[in-house]
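Example 432, ligand 6-O-phosphoryl inosine monophosphate.
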Amino acid sequence: MPNEKTLVVIGAQWGDEGKGKIIDLLSQNAEVVVRFNGGNNAGHTVIVDGKTYRFRLLPSGIISPKTLNVIATGVIINLNGLLEEIEEAEKNGLLIKNLYISDRSPLVLPYHILLDKFYEEKRGNKKIGTTARGIGPAYTDHFSRDTLHVGDLFDKEVFKEKLNYIYSLKKATLSSDFQLPPFEEVYNSQLNTFEKLMEKGVTITDTSKLIYDHIKAGKKILFEGAQGTLLDINFGTYPFVTSSFTISGGVCVGAGIPPQSINKVIGVIKAYTSRVGEGPFPSEIKDELAEIIREKGQEYGTVTRRPRRVGWLDFVALRYAKRINGFTELAITKLDVLSGLEKLKFVVAYKYKGRIIDEFPSSLNILEKCEPITEEISGWKQSLKNIKNYNDLPENVIKYKERIEKELETKITIIGTGPARDEIILLKDPWE
Ligand code: GDP
Ligand code: IMO
Ligand code: MG
């Protein structure tokens, strides 16, 4: 069922591209905002009137008073984390209403979090650098069909029976080194939190039908991607990825809507690259410039506060992201962070064993050994603060933007010039 009014926002790199800020901008005119993948490993920052909001499970559209906010089936739910987040948002002055959660969403239970840490420890120097939110183990249980769903909590007896069965299964299959948290404690805390969420007016429902009805009614629907293309379980830099479908195709499987319901796909690109956690990163900057950019861009994890690794824009990776996601337009963030750098670089291809590679390699063994081939471009001295009009941007910012557009054969329609809500230049409204 085609709908002219559906927008998908996807991170084009390794996450933290500034999706939260773009979602906040677009949700001001949206009627529905939907999270469709990941869990509370996401950290989406929105800054409005000097106040900073960090959303993990809540759709970033929750700031806009009119939107319907949906956490769809592809998202895994840590109920305690969600309750904490709602309470934090309320303290921040937000009214949490119109929040709908899929009854089919898998639960992240306390043992998933313990398992995440346990596996990371056992991986030793092969660790992934996860956010320790239980994401991998919770999705694993989902795919092995040994999980509980949010909807199971409607009936205490059903929930108890299912949890009991899963506990017996876990006890029979897990290493004896691993201690499961006490059954009663998990059972009681899940029910307790579920009831508190009900009291707060959260609706647990068939979100696929809810979204379908809104698509059919021609409403404006915004799909908020979490993580980024290169963290996708199938198409990212496996095993240094997350465990969900982070690409635009993830909308269909995560929200339960048909492909023809998707209209536009906006790729969010940070003006340079960042990566938190382990894994190959061909355009990584390894000298003191990395520290300068990290400080200026405040590149520290929203969830874990870990320092993010930083690098140049990588056209090999971005062309791949464009192909996988079908970006129809682009948003670029954090151009302001590059102000003052005399020379900037793009990685245009890789060199592997003397050969030039311009397709993103699917083999990690190859990717790890790829040397970047770079192209230099002049930077700009001026600060971008307070620039509201495209024509007032320094000439070299425009050249930088146009070089990206040419490479990706896609227009940049949104330009971020600072972290706050109003530090943005909108060249073309994607809703039009
Ligand atoms: P997300 O996970 O993609 O939503 O991104 P994060 O919120 O984890 O990280 C992006 C960071 O950059 C946040 O601290 C934002 O406030 C900030 N940010 C977003 N856009 C801009 C921008 O255009 N300029 C600057 N300086 N900061 C930005
Ligand atoms: P947003 O939505 C950046 C990374 C972790 C780790 C890997 C696996 O804010 O862009 P996980 O806990 O998911 O099993 O960790 O994925 N990661 C992110 N990096 N932004 C994110 O989300 C991320 N979510 C997960 O750092 O390398
Ligand atoms: Mg983030």
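Summary: The two ends are 19 Å apart (CA to CA).
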